[in-house]
Design goal:
Blueprint (H helix, E strand, L loop, with lengths): L1 H15 L3 E5 L4 E4 L5 H7 L2 H9 L4 H8 L10 E3 L11 E8 L2 E9 L16 H36 L2 H15 L6 E8 L29 E7 L9 E7 L7 H11 L15 E4 L3 E2 L4 H17 L6 E3 L6 H4 L4 H4 L13 H12 L4 H8 L3 H15 L6 H14 L2
Parallel strand pairs: 9-11
Antiparallel strand pairs: 1-2, 1-5, 3-4, 4-5, 6-8, 6-9, 6-10, 7-8
Helix pairs in contact: 1-5, 5-6, 11-12, 11-13, 11-14, 12-13
Length: 412
């Protein structure tokens, strides 16, 4: 459908005599009109528009700035003034893209000399603007149709990844029919955690794509299906699952690109305004749909590992998360060993970090002291306190193993 969007955007650009840009409601770029010349580009571009085109998404700050003008509730075109402090050097005209009362996206035009005469107070009085608004209605219908199709694929993907065996079999067959030949080709599963479900984003007026899938597939090239998986994390948070088409099982680059793009979505992160860093995980690529549930478990484990270890993220592959491949499979209650619990109290954060660095350094005191920036005698004192709190002997291999696993698992 991407060609259809481009054609419709070009129609608006031609009707109004100015290049238009189409974004989904999460400010992901879908299509943009061509500029007539290099001189035209220099005159009409500003940092916000340039970033949107080059990175295919605007920042959260830009989104908040524009939404403050009421674009998510607008029923008619809006004129938005420039604000150089926000990087918006030129004013904008926003044509809201709606379908059955739900905003699905926005068409943006730079408010320059070509459009200065437009009277937005009576939009249908100007035939140019009336034609442009009719085109946005067609864009809205197209986005809604694609969103419905995406929601159906997402429901099948969710059932395949997390449903019971009988449901998985029927979901796999239906998803194979819907995807066609792509269902037999190389595929990868990406998990983005945590993910804000529909309705968690302030000011959101309904969700045409289904349970929290975010932007329609129009804004996600290479993504075959998207779905939100509720209660996927130990704290009950939702996670996004994305099915990515690959060219070969040995070439995961499209999945890594998709993961990076999805992490920039305003839905990636904690719900309710909590500043939770989102991470993404990639399971080992598979050929066909049969092994996708295992790929999902790997992707979710990798996303959790990236959240636990900053050095692994923000996008981690299953093959690179080391001991977290085992630890992520443990139930939370099994990982919290009673002997280590006293060390995990907030009052002993420094001791716990010292113990983990010591074990990461294979018990080498010199390396550990250097990594922590402390004297060896300070290190020895802290390790003795660790032994007192846990009752574990750090000269014993099994004691070290138990402590190391418990410390790593606690951050998952």
């Amino acid at each position: 459908m991407r060609g259809d969007y481009q054609q419709l955007v070009d129609e608006i650009s031609a009707a109004l005599g100015a290049p238009a840009t189409l974004e989904d409601r999460d400010f992901g770029l879908i299509a943009f009109g061509a500029h007539d010349s290099d001189d035209d580009i220099e005159l009409t571009m500003d940092p916000v528009r340039t970033r949107s085109i080059l990175q295919r998404r605007s920042t959260a700050a830009v989104r908040a700035w524009f939404e403050a003008f009421g674009i998510a509730r607008a029923q008619a075109p809006l004129r938005i003034p420039p604000d150089p402090a926000a990087g918006v050097f030129k004013g904008r005209i926003c044509l809201p893209v709606r379908h059955r009362g739900v905003v699905l996206g926005y068409v943006w035009l730079l408010d320059d000399e070509h459009l200065s005469g437009l009277d937005l107070s009576v939009p249908l009085a100007d035939p140019r603007l009336a034609q442009a608004m009719e085109t946005t209605t067609r864009i809205g219908a197209l986005l809604a149709a694609e969103a419905r199709a995406g929601a159906e694929l997402g429901e099948l993907l969710r059932e395949l990844l997390t449903g019971r065996p009988a449901g998985r079999d029927s979901a796999r067959a239906a998803l194979r029919d819907a995807l066609g030949a792509a269902g037999d080709g190389p595929l990868a599963v990406v998990a983005v955690a945590p993910w804000r479900a529909a309705g968690d984003t302030e000011g959101e007026a309904g969700d045409a794509e289904g349970p929290g899938a975010g932007s329609a597939l129009a804004g996600q090239p290479g993504v075959a299906a998207l779905c939100a998986v509720p209660d996927a994390l130990p704290d009950g948070s939702a996670t996004l699952a994305a099915l990515i088409r690959l060219r070969a099982t040995t070439a995961p680059a499209p999945a890594l690109t998709a993961a990076d793009r999805l992490l920039r979505s305003p839905r990636a992160g904690g719900a309710g305004g909590r500043p939770v860093r989102a991470t993404a995980g990639l399971g080992a690529p598979r050929r066909g749909l049969a092994e996708l549930p295992a790929a999902w478990r790997e992707a979710l484990a990798a996303a959790r590992a990236a959240g636990a270890e900053a050095r692994l993220g923000p996008v981690a592959e299953w093959s690179g998360i080391g001991p977290y491949r085992v630890l992520s499979a443990l139930p939370a209650q099994a990982a919290a060993d009673p002997s280590v619990r006293p060390l995990l109290a907030p009052a002993h954060t420094e001791l716990a970090r010292t113990a983990e660095v010591f074990l990461d350094c294979a018990g080498q005191a010199g390396r550990t002291a250097a990594a922590l920036g402390i004297h060896r005698q300070t290190l020895y004192y802290r390790l003795s306190r660790v032994e007192q709190l846990t009752g574990l002997d750090l000269d014993d291999g099994e004691g070290r193993l138990l402590l190391h696993m418990a410390l790593k698992a606690d951050r998952l």
